[in-house]
Amino acid sequence: xxxxxxxxxxxxxxxxxxxxxxxxxxxxxxxxxxxxxxxxxxxxxxxxxxxxxxxxxxxxxxxxxxxxxxxxxxxxxxxxxxxxxxxxxxxxxxxxxxxxxxxxxxxxxxxxxxxxxxxxxxxxxxxxxxxxxxxxxxxxxxxxxxxxxxxxxxxxxxxxxxxxxxxxxxxxxxxxxxxxxxxxx
Length: 185
Known about the structure:
- By secondary structure, the protein is mostly helical.
- Helix content is 69%, strand content 5%.
- It has two domains: 7-108, RNA polymerase sigma factor, region 2, helix turn helix motif (Rna Polymerase Sigma Factor, Chain: A), CATH 1.10.1740; 116-183, Winged helix-like DNA-binding domain superfamily/Winged helix DNA-binding domain (Arc Repressor Mutant, subunit A), CATH 1.10.10.10.
């Protein structure tokens, strides 16, 4: 951001003046989106990050202390939102990639549709996993689903199930051993 925001605009926005807030949003929406798109590599995630950051900024404006420039403060919030988004998307495949060109932002959308034989193979694998999961005891199935499917951490599973940490780790170990046996891996 090469332009410095006027002190009056910042003051009005901090006081909750809707026109000033709208002006800030309009001014930062596109640069935020471009930054988030480059950071996240996904147009949909970038749009979500931009929206979330702008909402956090609007809510946080009254508490802005002015220890840094407003732009720095706002981009720090956006960066933190992007870091959180990146953590959440860590195991998700990249669907869209963003690139900056002279004409603006362009998106390359790779064809990620599986081939027909891959669909059949994937369907058969899902069915096999479902059947193997159903062969597990309720306790073993529960920890496998919570940890491996829903990505809960051990301590979260302890809180969900009310079972000790050692028991959770033990159940997860034995559940995985049983799954390997049922799936013949």
